Amino acid sequence: MTDIILHHYDLSPFSEKIRLALGYKGLPWKSVKVEAVPPRPLLDALTGGYRRVPVMQIGADIYCDTEVIFRALERIQPQPSLYPAGEGIAKALSFWWDRATWKPAIGILVDYIGEHLPEEFLRDRKDHYLGYDISKSAMAPMLSAYVQQMTAFGEWLASMLAENGDYLTGQAVSAADITCYHSLWLLRANCGAEAIDAQLRLSPAVTAWMDRIAAIGHGTPTEMTPEEALAVAKEAEPADSFAADADPTGLKPGQAVTVTPDDNAKVTVAGTLVAVDAQEIVIARQSSEAGTHHIHFPRAGFEVFAAPADAQTAA
């Protein structure tokens, strides 16, 4: 198998999800560090401008969003599975957690460290990513609400553990555990575990669960430069085994389409439809920097529409 390459940065909570998933599956991977704030021209050449991190690359196949990365990892190495109790509950819980906890977690985070965040970072998140001001002063009026929400969610985790055992969906790690860990990891790593545990009233059961997830580790990464990763894509041909022609709205391979996140960082990526079902869509793009490559997106959380026949598909 061609090397797994992860484009990420250390303090990205969504990247932490994938680092843990790679560790759980025991897969070696190449680590390409990117800036927390764009521009990222070499990564853009692979993704068509999609601006969220992490991005996983295997040769000339590019995977955008953690849900479709999890799905690809299951194809690559089915065991141990990220869905030991089935996909439905784990995926639904993960989707809810990502969206429900993101803003309150940021609100609490900036209360602790907001004065240390660079102005460039704050401006980017307001103008190009989230659409709202995450500076400490802007988030402060809602801090009590953010704490209330995260405390409630923490109690829900404790309830799941009491019902199911060591992990949220049963006796084995699932994608839900790795996902629900990441927002709390972000807070504890940056604000202090003791302070966050007390503020959010995290139960011993929840903190012990977090210790179990942290113990999974990140496996065996080795460093790679962005230039090397781009060269890998240019020299390769798309090779992922996913193939389907089952779009619920009638889109067909060969059509020009656009793909856009529906929540934040709403950068539209255009390409030619290659494969599609209710869970995943793959588009082809071509550029002088990256050659012909396929970009994979999940369907949940993204809007896909037919584009004019002459839509731009090159970077």
TrEMBL record:
It holds the Pfam family GST_N_3. Residues 2-81 form the GST N-terminal domain. Gene3D superfamilies: 3.40.30.110. It comes from Ruegeria marina. This is Glutathione S-transferase. One of its GO terms (molecular function) is transferase activity. The keyword Transferase applies. Keywords: Transferase. The keyword Transferase applies.
